[in-house]
Amino acid sequence: SFGYFHVALYLLDAEHGEVVLHAFAGGYPAALLAGYRQAVNVGMIGHAAQQGETLLANDVTQEPRYFNFLPDGEKVRSELCVPIAHGQHIIGVLDVQHVERGAFGLDDVQAMETLAVQIGIAIQNAELFEETRQHVAELTALQEINLQIGASLDISIVLETIAQNALKLVGADDVRIFLYDSVKDEFVLGVALQEDGRHT
What integer best gives the mean pLDDT of the chain? Predict the structure, then answer.
């Protein structure tokens, strides 16, 4: 809506020292951008992620940190990279590009920095929501297991309930529960359940 050529949202993959493209809009074909990643020591995007500071180049030919990774990038003349923070930690970069030199003014910088703050809050809220959802799912599963244990004397039904809930909670392909036979001093398979509900 600002009339920019390209806008992209990168999130930081600290484990691999990379920024990963998660969302974009504008002039580049989606097929060229799908799955794009780059090291944090590369380009203006990497600089913003590494240093945690806004970087503006109104003439990319004069910016040594500018990095063109796409053929259509040749038409880009201005780039603005704004870090996205989560508290004190940098979690991503908002990257904006334009085909004209001198395209970005102070208003653009302030608008994108404000947007980056809002994105950081949205990501934090999404993470908190997911953590809460997972916690509720775990408590629900434990409650179901407790109810089944209290209501049934059939060990096979209890094991089945535990296996079903374990599959849902961890997203596993299959779950196997072994019981210890103290007489034979060995473990015996009590239940084996696959993700599709089949027993193995």
Answer: 86
Distances (CA, A) of 17 to 43, 47, 49, 66, 180: 13, 12, 10, 18, 45
135: CB partners within 8 A, 6+ apart:
none
The H-or-E segment that residue 79 falls in is strand 78-86
| Count of beta carbons in the 10 Å neighbourhood of residue 93 | 29
pLDDT in tens, 106-147: 999 999 999 999 998 888 887 777 777 777 777 777 777 777
Per the CB < 8 A criterion, the answer to whether 39 and 17 are in contact is: yes
Evaluate whether 119 touches 84 at the Cβ level (below 8 Å).
yes
Separation of alpha carbons 175 and 13, rounded Å: 30
**Residue 41 CA to chain centroid, in angstroms?**
20
Burial 42-81 (b: 16+ CB within 10 A, else e): bbbbbbbbbeeebbbbbebeebebbbeeeeebeebbbbbb
> 73: closest CA among 6, 8, 25, 3?
6
pTM for this prediction: 0.66
Contact yes or no for 72/49 (Cβ under 8 A): no
**Dist CA 11 CA 21 (whole Å):** 7
Q: Tell me the C-alpha distance between 51 and 184, whole Å.
A: 62
